[in-house]
Design goal:
Rossmann fold, homotrimer, disordered C terminus, five-stranded parallel β-sheet, alpha/beta, 2 domains, four-stranded parallel β-sheet
C-alpha cells in the first residue's frame, strides 16, 4: 500500500513545488497544519454535537482554526468543514479513503448502521441537484442519521424574499440560523464562495455540495477515489478530460489532476486552470483528436455539454454538443485496463453500447460517491481514531511522479 | 372466502376469454407463469437487497424474468416490479390483498413495525403528485423503512438539463444511477412507458406511480381492493364511471372492470377502452342519465374533470365540469349497499352533504391506498411465505360472472 | 416564579378587562374552559393516535370540543390544534413553556429522544417557508418522530389542479385525506383561515404554520417565550415594534403584546390592530424616532420590509426599506438589559456589527422556535401529566400590569 494512492491534483501539484506538502510525508507525524486555506479547519473536539448551542450573547461563529495534532496514534481525526478540494493534503485523503472503504462494507452488509444515530443533516440546496442531494441523504440514512431536506431553497425561501449574497457581509448571512435545526449542513449554492461564507458563520460543519461555477469538492474526492480504485494508483497516470472544460465545475475541480485535455474548441478549459497547471509543473496537452488521446490514457473522463450554460446561444451549444462521443469505436482503441468515467447525468456523449464494457466505470463511480459521502459525514460528525488509519499514515517516503506531456497544444480563442 | 374476491378487470375480462386465466384457478398450484408482459417479472431471490450491488464491469440491468414457482407452500412469493395493472393475475392479487389486510392491522396498532427497517425507498416524481407521494412515503415509514424524496424531479434535476426520454434508448437512461442510493424506486413520470423503461435498466424494484396518460397501477389496485372490501365481492357487480373518462388515467385503468359508463359527451371514454371491453366480452353501456344508472349500480365511481387537460379550451372545461354531480338527490336513488368512490382530490363533483353518508367510501378508499402500498413494498422488498396466503389460493372452482348490459349507447364525437 | 411569566398579549389585554382571564389565576383549578374560539379544542383522550381511523361511513370530522378538566393534578393536559395565538390562556402558555424548557434539556443532551417514536408528521406547505418547515421537522425528528414533507404543495399538488378555498365549504376540502397518512399536520397556507378550516375537517391535530396575512401562532409563542427567557418577565415591559407593521404577519400577531410602535409611515400598523389594543386598554404609542423609543424599551423587535408584499410598487418598497436600521449607534442608546429580536431572515435592517452584542437575541430566538415546536408536538400527540406543570399553576395572585403610554402618535395616511 502506498500513500500515493490518495492525493488530489492540487495537493499533488503543490507537492511538486511546495516543501510543506513534501515534508508532510517525510516528517510525519510531527507535522503541524499550517494550511493557508481558511476553510481547512481541523479540530479535536471530543463531541462536536456538544458545541452546537449558541453561546449566550455571542452570535454563532465558526469554530476557531485549531492547531492540528492529528495522526498521532490514539488521537481523533475529525474534519471541520468540506469547502474545496485544495483543503485536503495527502494524509487527509488517505484517511478519508480508508474510511470510505469501511463504508463500502457497511453499505453491503444488510445490517443497519447506527454510527450517526441521533444526528440531523440539513441539505440546503439553493440550486437543484437531485443526484447529489440524494447521494448525501442516502449516505446519512445508511449510517442511521436523519435528514432535513430542501429541494430548491432558492425559489422557496428567503432567497426569493431578497436574500442574496451580493453586497452582504458574510457574517450577516442567515445560514447560521439553520444550525439551530441540524448538526451538519450540506449546501449547494448558485454563487461561488457561498459555502465558504456559510462555514465562516456556522458553528456546525458545512459541506460544499457545489457553489455555482466554483468548487464541488465531494465530486472531486469521489473521482479521485474512483481512479484509485479502478486503476490501482494515482501516480504516473494520464487522464483525458473530454467535453465542456470551460463551464463544467466538476472537470475544473478535477483538472488539477490532469495531463491531457480534449475538448471542442468552443468550450476549452479556461486559461486560469491552464496557468495553474503550468505554474505547478504539471505537464498537460490540449488535443482535438480524441481517438489518439484515448489510446494512450489510463482514464477517459467524459463530461456533458451543459445546455443551460449557453443561454440563448443554441448555435454554440449544438456545435459543441456531440463533437466528441465515447462509443464502441473509442473502446476499440482504449487500453485494456483503462476506464471511462463520467460525473452523470449523461445524455448521448457516451453511447449505450459502452455500458456493458467492463471499462465503463461511471456507475461504479456514482456508487463511490455514496461511500465518500458516508466517510465525510462520519469524519465531520464523529471523527475516527487515528489508530484506524495508522498503517496508511505510517507509509512514508513514496515518490510522487506525474509524468505528463508539457507540449502545449494550440489554444483556440475561447468563445465563452 | 372466494378467490373471486381478488381480481382486476383486465384479469377478469381475460378470464372470460382466456383458458389460461380460467385454468389458473382450477389447476393451481401447478400453474406456471407464462405472462407476456415483460414487466411481470417474478423472482425467488433469498434477499433482494443482496443483489443490488453493481456487477463489476457490467452496467446495471434488470433482473432476468424467471420462471415462477410461486404459490407452492413454503416458497417465497416476491414481486419484482409494479408497472401496470395487467401484470397481476388473480393469484397475485389475492396474495397482495391478503398482505394488505395484514397491513391494516399493523397500521392500526400503535407499535412501530420494523419489517422494512434498513431499507431505503426513493420517490422520483418527475411530475408532482403530493397525495400519491405522501401515501407511498407514509407506507414505507409505517413499516420502519426510510425515504429519499423528490417533489419535482422534472423541474429540479437533470430533466431540466436536457435529459428526456425522447429518442434516447432506454438503456441509456440514467435511472439506474438512483439504484446506488436506494433499495426501491417509486417513479412518477410525465411520459407514458417511463416506468417500464426504468424497470428495464434498474436492478432494484421499480413501482410505477403514474406515467403520464399511461398507467397508475397502484391506484387501480386500491380501487379494486376497495370494491372488494366495500361490496364484499368482485363478481356480478356493476360499476358506473362518471366524469372525465377520456383523460383520466385512473378511470382508464379501472375501466377494464366496468360495465356502465356515464360521462359528459365532451369527455367520453376513448374508443380504445371501449374496443378493449367489447373484444373481451365485457358488457358495457354508455348513458347520459346518471340518476338512472346510479339506481342500478353497486359502485358509482366519480372522477374529477381535470382542468389542466383542457389547455386553453376553458369553454369545453366549463361545459364538462359540473355536468354530473353526486349529491343527496343521487344518494336518494342509490341502493342501500352501493358505495360512492372517488380517487381524490375532488372539487365540487361530490357535494359536501354526501360525506356523512355511510355509502361515501372515498376517504376509506384513500386509506386503502396506504394499505395496498404497504403490501406492495413488503412484497417487493422482502416478499412473503406462500404459507401465509395458502388458504386463499386453495379456494378454487368459483365461477366468475360479470353480468353487464351490452346495449351500446350512442357514441358522441369525441372532441378531445 | 410568577404566573405572569407566561401570557400572550391577547390574554394579557383581555386579562385587564375580562373577569374570566383574571379569575383564571385566582380560582384555579376549578376553572372550566369556556373559550369562544372554535379552534380552542381540548381533549383528554387516552391515546389520540387510536382515534385516527375513519369511522365507517362517517366522513372524517373534527374532534368534538370537550369540556376541559385540565390542570387537575394527575390528569393529562393535551392540546387539540394550534390555530391562533388567541386560543391560549395563561395556564396553557405556562404549561407549554414548561414543556419547552424540558425540550431544551432533551435537545442539549446527546441522547436520542423517543417520545414521539412511531408518530408521523406531515408538513403541508402551500407557500414555501424553508425556515419554519425545517424548524418543525427538526423538532419532530429530535423527538424520534418521522416526517412526510411537502416543500410547495401549492405549486405541486391539487392546488395547481384547481383546488382552492374560495367558494368551497370547508367540509369539502380534502385536507382530511392527509390524515390517512400522518398523525399530525403542520400547515402553511396562502389564504387566511385555511388552518382553521383544515382543523374543522381533520380528525388529527392541525398546527397553523402561517396562513397568508392571518396568524402565525407558533412564531408568536416563540416570541413571547423568548421575551420571557431574555427579560425574565412579561409584565411591566415595553416593546418597540420596528419595520413593516402593516404587512408583517409576525408582528401583527405579536402586536397584541405591544406598547410602542415605530415604523415608516408607508407601512404603519393597520388600524384594526390599533383599535384592538385601544379597546382592550393597552397603552400604545406611534413614533418616528427609533433612537428615542429604543432608549426606553425592554425589547426592540425589528422586522424585515417584505419586498414581495409591495408588488410593482418598488418606489414604496425602497422608501420604506432601510428607514429604520438597528446598528451600533442604536445599541449605544439601548438599556443594558434590553434585547434585540427579529423573526429572521433579515436583510440589512440589522447590521452585522450588532450580532456580537449580548443583547442580540435573534439567533437564540430562532432556537427557541425549535423548543416551542417540540413542546407543541409533544402536547398535541401525547400530552403531559398535569403533575409536571403543577407548581407553575399553583402560583396565583400575581398582579398583571402593562404600563404603556397612551399618547397616540400622529397617524399618517396608510398607503397600503
Amino acid at each position: 500500500m502506498s500513500i500515493t494512492s490518495s492525493l488530489t491534483s492540487a495537493t499533488l501539484c503543490r507537492s511538486l513545488v511546495s516543501p510543506k506538502a513534501l515534508a508532510c510525508s517525510n516528517a510525519f507525524p510531527s507535522n503541524r497544519l499550517s494550511n493557508p486555506f481558511e476553510s481547512s479547519k481541523l479540530c479535536l473536539t471530543a463531541n462536536p454535537k456538544k458545541s452546537i448551542a449558541l453561546v449566550q450573547g455571542i452570535r454563532c461563529h465558526a469554530m476557531q482554526v485549531e492547531t492540528r495534532e492529528a495522526f498521532t496514534a490514539g488521537k481523533k481525526f475529525q474534519l471541520s468543514d468540506v469547502i474545496e478540494g485544495q483543503q485536503f493534503d495527502r494524509e487527509m485523503l488517505s484517511a478519508i479513503f480508508h474510511v470510505a472503504r469501511e463504508m463500502e462494507k457497511i453499505e453491503k452488509s444488510s445490517s443497519q448502521s447506527e454510527i450517526l444515530k441521533g444526528y440531523l443533516m440539513a441539505t440546503l440546496f439553493y440550486e437543484p441537484s437531485t443526484r447529489t442531494r440524494l447521494s448525501f441523504e442516502s449516505a446519512m440514512k445508511r449510517l442511521g442519521g436523519e435528514v432535513l431536506t430542501t429541494e430548491n431553497a432558492r425559489e422557496f425561501s428567503s432567497a426569493a424574499k431578497g436574500e442574496t449574497l451580493e453586497g452582504i457581509p458574510s457574517c450577516q448571512l442567515n445560514y447560521c440560523q439553520y444550525t439551530c435545526y441540524s448538526n451538519i449542513v450540506v449546501m449547494r449554492h448558485f454563487e461561488s464562495g457561498a459555502a465558504r461564507k456559510a462555514a465562516a458563520t456556522a458553528n456546525i460543519p458545512v459541506i460544499n455540495a457545489g457553489d455555482g461555477p466554483g468548487e464541488h469538492p465531494t465530486q472531486a474526492l469521489l473521482d479521485v477515489y474512483t481512479i484509485q480504485s479502478e486503476i490501482g494508483k494515482l501516480d504516473d497516470i494520464s487522464v483525458a478530460l473530454v467535453g465542456d472544460l470551460a463551464n463544467g465545475r466538476t472537470v475544473r475541480s478535477l483538472a488539477y489532476l490532469l495531463a491531457k485535455f480534449v475538448s471542442p474548441e468552443i468550450v476549452k478549459m479556461k486559461d486560469d486552470i491552464k496557468d495553474y497547471l503550468t505554474s505547478n509543473g504539471v505537464e498537460w496537452e490540449e488535443s482535438l483528436d480524441l481517438m489518439e488521446v484515448a489510446s494512450k490514457c489510463d482514464v477517459v473522463y467524459q463530461t456533458r455539454i451543459q445546455r443551460e450554460r449557453f443561454g440563448d446561444r443554441l448555435d454554440l451549444y449544438e456545435a459543441a454538443c456531440g463533437k466528441y462521443i465515447v462509443d464502441e469505436a473509442l473502446l476499440g482503441v482504449m487500453q485494456k485496463n483503462a476506464v471511462i468515467m463520467h460525473p452523470l447525468p449523461r445524455l448521448n456523449e457516451i453511447t449505450a453500447d459502452v455500458d456493458a464494457d467492463p471499462r465503463a466505470a461511471f456507475f461504479r463511480q456514482a456508487k463511490n460517491g455514496l461511500f465518500i459521502r458516508m466517510a465525510l459525514l462520519k469524519l465531520l460528525l464523529v471523527g475516527c481514531k487515528v489508530i484506524d488509519v495508522n498503517l496508511r499514515f505510517r507509509t512514508t517516503g513514496s515518490v510522487i511522479k506525474l509524468r505528463a506531456q508539457l507540449q502545449l497544444g494550440e489554444i483556440a480563442n475561447s468563445t465563452t
